[in-house]
């Protein structure tokens, strides 16, 4: 770094910041320093880098920069009504603070992206986290120039070719099917709704586990539309009569209420597990580790910022966080259930 500084007539601290792509150094100077480093054969020492990172980790983190959490839900407060999503925010907030960042939520509704860009530029914010969004105008990101930003999206719903982190939903469904099987159930049915990518991933995992587990009935998946409550309830009633499941695994929080309307008690008449124990209206099922997903998003964003990787990548990476099984009274072990009848 001293040689580069002498070659360019710059201060060594400026060269150091430029090599780390610090926002305080202008893009032109950063480019000049990187070009000179390449010409002079500069290569960072990974062991010294690890030592510096270790020493930095021992110090209390001061807030040095802001990161933006972009919420374009039509009603931004609805985002936090989903406990999984709120867990993303909480995990990301803690991780950002520990790393010396302040994570600020920008609740735009379906407001102007150009106005958002003006705010981000004025505050010199270059790191963005985009959480899950519902279909609609708020999930249209085509009006934003991402070339200035390091971007991480959470989950699968955002239509943006950015690096991402999320729950491994296919693996989670395989885990769920196997745990339900282990608890003594032999006629396991899956209820979901078409359209959402997450539902398709859970369904794919369920079908894989079903096809690769011997000795169990292979019940067809029930697809509900979640638009016409009466029609969905009638479809559930027919499916129950035709296929006689002893346990239901579902992505829909509405299934438990529909079962009650049909006069079926959980777990006495039918066991129930959800792909999300936080939002699925069943206390047995999948824990998707949302806070860890939020923390991982900040870890990934920090790497992008450190290396000055701006814009949307040609080949996005997807980091999968593994889910875990949660026991609950909505799906007791069959032996335990039989002893109470």
Note the topology.
Elements lengths: L1 H7 L3 H8 L7 H13 L6 H12 L7 E7 L11 H16 L2 E7 L5 H10 L4 E4 L19 E5 L8 E5 L1 H14 L5 E5 L4 H15 L10 E2 L5 H15 L3 E4 L4 H7 L9 E4 L10 E3 L2 H17 L11 E4 L2 E3 L7 H7 L1
Parallel strand pairs: 1-2, 1-3, 3-4, 4-5, 5-11, 6-7, 6-8, 8-9
Antiparallel strand pairs: 10-12
Helix pairs in contact: 2-3, 5-11, 7-8, 9-10
Describe this protein's structure.
With 341 residues, the protein is of the alpha/beta class. 41% of the residues lie in helices and 16% in strands. The strands form three sheets. It has a six-stranded parallel β-sheet with strand order 2-1-3-4-5-11, covered by helices on one side. It has a four-stranded parallel β-sheet with strand order 7-6-8-9. The longest helix has 17 residues, at 290-306. The model has no long low-confidence stretch (mean pLDDT 90).
Label this structure with key terms.
single chain, 341 residues, 6-stranded parallel sheet, 4-stranded parallel sheet, 41% helix
């Amino acid at each position: 770094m001293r040689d580069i500084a002498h070659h360019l007539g710059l201060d060594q601290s400026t060269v150091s910041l430029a090599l780390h792509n610090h926002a305080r150094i202008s893009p032109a100077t950063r480019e000049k320093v990187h070009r000179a480093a390449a010409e002079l054969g500069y290569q960072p020492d990974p062991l010294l880098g690890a030592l510096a990172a270790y020493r930095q980790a021992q110090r209390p983190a001061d807030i040095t920069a802001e990161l933006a959490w972009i919420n374009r839900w039509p009603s931004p407060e609805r985002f936090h009504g989903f406990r999984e999503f709120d867990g993303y925010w909480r995990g990301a907030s803690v991780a950002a603070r520990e790393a010396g960042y302040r994570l600020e939520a920008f609740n735009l509704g379906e407001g102007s992206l150009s106005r958002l860009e003006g705010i981000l530029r004025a505050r010199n914010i270059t790191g963005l986290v985009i959480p899950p969004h519902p279909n609609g105008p708020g999930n249209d990101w085509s009006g934003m120039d991402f070339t200035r930003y390091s971007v991480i999206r959470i989950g699968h719903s955002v239509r943006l070719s950015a690096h991402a982190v999320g729950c491994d939903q296919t693996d989670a469904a395989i885990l769920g099917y196997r745990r339900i099987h282990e608890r003594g159930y032999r006629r396991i049915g899956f209820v979901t709704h078409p359209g959402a990518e997450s539902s398709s991933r859970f369904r794919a995992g369920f079908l894989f586990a079903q096809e690769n587990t011997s000795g169990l009935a292979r019940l067809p998946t029930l697809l509900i539309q979640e638009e016409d409550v009466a029609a969905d309830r009638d479809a559930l009633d027919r499916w129950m009569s035709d296929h006689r499941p002893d346990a239901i695994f579902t992505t829909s929080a509405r299934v438990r209420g529909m079962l009650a309307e049909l006069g079926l008690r959980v777990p006495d008449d039918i066991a129930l597990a959800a792909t999300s124990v936080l939002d699925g209206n069943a206390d047995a099922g999948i824990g998707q580790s949302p806070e860890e997903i939020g923390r991982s998003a900040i870890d990934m964003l920090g790497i992008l910022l450190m290396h000055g990787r701006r814009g949307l990548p040609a080949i996005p990476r997807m980091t999968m966080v593994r889910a875990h099984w949660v026991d609950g009274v909505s799906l007791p072990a069959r032996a335990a259930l039989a002893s109470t009848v």
